[in-house]
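Team,

Forwarding the record for the chain on the shared tracking sheet. I've put the sequence and predicted structure together so nobody has to dig through attachments.
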Amino acid sequence: MSNVHTYLIVCSILVCIHFTNGLSETSDHESVSESTRSFVPDFTNRYFLKDGKPYYYISGILHYTRVLPQYWELRLRQMKAAGLDAVQTYAFWNVHEPRPGVYDFEGNHDIIQFIELAQKVGLLVVLRIGPYICAEWDLGGMPSWLLTHEGINLRSRDTVYMSYVYKWLDVILPKVHPLLYSKGGPILMLQYENEYGFFGADKVYLSDLVAYINNIIPSEDVPLFSTDGNDYNLLLRGSLTNKILATIDFGIHTNVTASVDALRRYSYGTPFVNTEFYTGWPDTWGGKHQTRATSAILVTLNEILKANGSVCFYMFSGGTNFGFMNGAEGDATHYLP
């Protein structure tokens, strides 16, 4: 039996256990009228409320830019068949705006079709809109033409940088607004920055992003969230409190209790979400293919579920990098694409 088949079977078994324990509910997402559809974090009870009922989700990551459109529905149906509640993806700014003011939402850049297909097969969506996404993707999803502006300071309040960020948000947010769960669509949450605690600590920058998003999409329409490492100091640097959901990421062989404690120390009532549960890792050119033992994945996943956590498999289906959009690892002496 292939690793893929083993992985799908494992996911199905664990999701069935998750449902049996009452940690998640299955329902027809279309059966609730738009006027009563809601999804919000409950900061008192540390879980989500979906249509007024406690809710936890299991999701997996699939990037529409890394899979040909003719295979999107098949991949999404496989995720649904594995028992997942939702698919998570980024919005890739640099493929959608290859040149300033020139936008591309066609072919395997048609994010709207991808989200609509997810809803068609019965999956919810967690959408991470950037501006920085990492994603092991060229310049973390930011357009390379930003660097033609001498002295630009990315991921900061730099006026040139933020002017382009705002223009991007002016384009992407109206496109996804009708697809929010509260509006009858599948999108549960929007991420406004990604792992910023590894990079900076400017809370004004983060607050400006949130404020601009909420000028276009009211806060009551969709929860916003950030993601940082499972460390209090990273959360302190990279996330916002004041009822803005903070989530964490980590992989196997992790102390789940300590990770949850760090999250609770930062934001006591926030629901526990592992936005990137690392079930593998990117390959580098010429390097060994990265795998993770199923047994180790099971141990950590079970601990997450026992802690009443929502979780996302990173990645569920990896796809491939087309053109020169692959990211890289390295330092001053090594470059590993």
